[in-house]
Amino acid sequence: MGGYTGEELTAIFLMQGFSGLSLFCVFLLMALGLAIIFGQMGVINMAHGEFLTLGAYITYLVSYLASDTWPFLLDYYFPVAIALAFLGTFILGYLVERFLIRFLYNRPLDTLLATWGLGLILQQIFRSVFGPREKSVVLPDWLMGSFQASDMVDIPINGVMVVALTVVMTIGVFFLLYRSRWGIKVRATTQNRAMANAAGINTEKVDRLTFALGCGIAGVAGAAFTTIASTGPTTGSLYIVDTFLVVVFGGAASLLGTVASAFGIAQSQSILSFFLSGSMAKVITLMTVVGILMFRPQGLFASKVRR
Amino acid sequence: MTSPILLAVEGLTVSFDGFKAVDDLSLYVERNEVRVVIGPNGAGKTTLLDLICGKTRATDGSIKFKDTELTRLAEDKIVHEGVGRKFQTPSIYENLTVFQNLELSYPKGRTVFGSLFFRRTPAITARVKEIAEMIYLDDDLEKSAGLLSHGQKQWLEIGMLLIQDPELLMLDEPVAGMSVVERERTAELLNRISTNRSVLVIEHDMDFVKDIAHKVTVLHQGKVLAEGKMDDIQKNERVIEVYLGH
Amino acid sequence: MDKPDTQALAASRWMDKFGGRGKLIQILIIAFLIMVVLPLCADIFRLNLYGKYLTYAFVAAGLVLCWGYGGILSLGQGIFFGLGGYCMAMFLKLEASSPENTAIQSTPGIPDFMDWNQLTELPWFWQPFHSFTLTLILIVAVPALFAFLIGFAMFKRRVGGVYFAIITQAIASIMTILIIGQQGYTGGINGITDLRTLMGWDIQTDFAKYVLYFACCGALLLCLLAGQFIINSRYGQLLIAMRDQEDRVRFSGYDVANIKIFVFVAASVISAIGGAFFTLQVGFMSPSFVGTVASIEMVIFCAVGGRLSLIGAAYGAFLVNLAKSSLSETFPQLWVVAMGALFIAVVMLFPRGLAGLVDDYAGPVRRWMKETFKRPQPAPAVEKKTAPPASNTSPDSAPILSAQESH
């Protein structure tokens, strides 16, 4: 990177840093749901990306309806879309747990295969219903445009919106898991199922809700995703491998770790891609992560537990 | 015969995030001795065995077995040195037969290629049968190990250790969950096998302890509280206080 | 009377090393099917396709070893299939890029895609592939070394189960991005194409296709035999024991990591051989056979056939691919759904795969046949059966077929 002055470098870092921020948001939004499902339940949900896609398509439908039928509602559809995206994916997640995951709790590797199959089916359904081409939502006016932070730095509003949504959801998940009664039940079930049962917790219900909630969060992630990119049938699956790496790298059960690792991976990928080709940036980032995981398999943030 | 001490544990400490499960503990086991370690729950008994066999790594201190320092040795190397360890819950290979369980524990063909080209010799078959007889399972050689009763599983695991002929045998609650008859037969078994090796046992059952122990060590909060003959231990006031006060 | 008896005993001992007479007969049946029946029934175009499906049987057989027996699910077997395939493709490409053939390029003598990407010199890692002997060695050595490095790093630190699956999947993803990104060195997304001759021998003639098909069959049978040998040795029992009670194996004086590394390397080498035959028969190699999707499909080939049966996995790979190409030709959308449903069904309904189904339904039939057509047995034979204890305890007679995961 010899050819750049310090000032230019700062500008590059800022600009790339901001574009890395939206990648960070996608990673984190997807990882939040995964962190609950994988971190708390130990279930590998390979169809998680498709839940995000479903949320995005629901948002697209709502926006389509709003712009097509009731144009005066266009400014307000987004909160409705988020709610519906959550609801839709929550219900699907609930059903998936009830009819699929439930039978596979002691076979984690089999869950992986079954959910991969589920993902394939969902992708094909998306393709049949929405067509193979990518769909973009109609953004309400207040999400468009950008504000000028300085004469070199230009910040798009939809980007800010996604960041805000990510922050809100991260905090929400944190409170849900670590400060709510339900969170205690979830963690109790994770740590000792038999004991939790004996203490009067309906662990089956906890499992079902936990899984559904993780999926619902993916749905909201999908809604947020529509504001920065368009949606295709395989949109979610493009991120699934990376997101799993994010969760594992962060230390599966640690929310702080997930945030840190999503940030680290997204930013280094984005900043490196200015100096190298995009694919090499990704290769180097992922290789570094895999390399670190080989030396520190428990991930970045994991407490030392007595075995 | 060299030194009478087979195992010397000195200043052993392990801490999990600040909690010292074993704290500056010293313990000496002689050759051909049966030593029983007792103590209330959480006293660090199982952790002590974990440390000796390498399952947990010590934070500080040393474990000398004969002339070898065990604290830095890999688990399988510790076994090769002559230390065998039985787990609290019977861990046997449920999907293999009793014969296969024992044969797989026979100390030969332990490397990848050694096991690929392993050949059963009449000597090995004989040895497996000999051990099976010792652990009262000679009629069940072809039975799948998963079908054995709980007590038989415990014996099988002891047999899997015996076939390796270890100099130090460590047993974690060998009679837990056994019937009275099984308990007596286990005591008999232990007395028989301890003639040419040292045995380190963790046990709660005091009658059983009386039957087998040469010497008893009482652990409390990771430290040695008392050590001596069973009769003396039973009179020791601090021991009584710890056990009753717990 | 005595002498033939000991001979028979020696023969049966020898067969026990490969899982007993029954398994060897099953392998012979496969040999008959793929080397006699298929060539008689299909024209060379079809047979060439079948040969392609059979290359996946290598991968599936490798997965039986490392996933079914070792409990290690690798979602990166495409890496090794690809490494084997690319090694072969690099040799063939260099041969196709002789200075005479590439005289019109700005740098003659290097592969066309390098020329298009402004490379003027053959990269160093292409150099060994001028030699056929070296290529044959590298087809096995490169994947073996790579698998060893991954296995060593992971298993020595006791990483297993889902973590191993996720990390191998990530590595497969990295490999694909790398191959696609480094067009000038690898041929990019199109892969290495236009492979025509092997040491001057045109591999696109019908005759050559026949030869390659039979060579592929032969190699597959050898790999199946090697696999049978592995799972019927003491080492194979150790794999089962390790799935049950890893700590007990460790504290019986075994280095568990080495056992896992070996089975992972063995699986990878078998996959790589399949990859090399793929390149030879199909005539090109591309990153789409390396990536995460390809790799996880390979797992399903194995699962459909039966994760605990080498022979089943070979059938599984062949049948799934047969179904894939016939379905996706006529109903491309339906195929994706069918594939998805297959993943779910194989996990939920028949986790032991085709081999399990055959066991369930053929077992009673076979027993019934034995009962009905029982021949009067000579007395000494009965005695002989009880004489060597446990000599015929092949692992598949024990109930290891419960397809439970250990993690």
From TrEMBL, chain A:
The chain crosses the membrane at residues 12-39, 51-70, 76-96, 108-126, 155-178, 211-232, 244-265, 272-295. One of its GO terms (molecular function) is transmembrane transporter activity. It comes from the Bacteria. It holds the Pfam family BPD_transp_2. It is a multi-pass membrane protein. Signal peptide: none annotated. Keywords: Amino-acid transport, Cell membrane, Membrane, Transmembrane, Transmembrane helix, Transport. One of its GO terms (biological process) is amino acid transport. One of its GO terms (cellular component) is plasma membrane. InterPro entries: ABC_transp_permease, ABC_UrtB_bac, BCAA_transport_permease. It is found in: Cell inner membrane. Belongs to the binding-protein-dependent transport system permease family. LivHM subfamily. NCBIfam families: urea_trans_UrtB (TIGR03409). This is Putative branched-chain amino acid transport system permease. It comes from Alcanivorax hongdengensis A-11-3. The lineage of its organism: Bacteria, Pseudomonadati, Pseudomonadota, Gammaproteobacteria, Oceanospirillales.
From TrEMBL, chain B:
Residues 7-246 form the ABC transporter domain. Keywords: ATP-binding, Nucleotide-binding, Transport. GO terms for cellular component: plasma membrane. Gene3D superfamilies: P-loop containing nucleotide triphosphate hydrolases (3.40.50.300). InterPro entries: ABC_AA/LPS_Transport (IPR051120), ABC_transporter-like_ATP-bd (IPR003439), ABC_transptr_urea_ATP-bd_UrtD (IPR017781), BCA_ABC_TP_C (IPR032823), P-loop_NTPase (IPR027417). GO terms for molecular function: ATP binding; ATP hydrolysis activity. It comes from the Bacteria. Signal peptide: none annotated. Pfam families: ABC_tran, BCA_ABC_TP_C. This is Branched-chain amino acid ABC transporter ATP-binding protein. It comes from Alcanivorax hongdengensis A-11-3. The lineage of its organism: Bacteria, Pseudomonadati, Pseudomonadota, Gammaproteobacteria, Oceanospirillales.
From TrEMBL, chain C:
This is Urea ABC transporter permease UrtC. It holds the Pfam family BPD_transp_2. GO terms for molecular function: branched-chain amino acid transmembrane transporter activity. GO terms for cellular component: plasma membrane. Its main location: membrane. It is a multi-pass membrane protein. It comes from Alcanivorax hongdengensis A-11-3. PANTHER family: HIGH-AFFINITY BRANCHED-CHAIN AMINO ACID TRANSPORT SYSTEM PERMEASE (PTHR30482), SLR1201 PROTEIN (PTHR30482:SF4). The chain crosses the membrane at residues 24-45, 57-83, 132-155, 162-181, 210-231, 252-278, 298-322, 334-354. Residues 372-407 are annotated as: Disordered. Keywords: Cell membrane, Membrane, Transmembrane, Transmembrane helix. It is found in: Cell inner membrane.
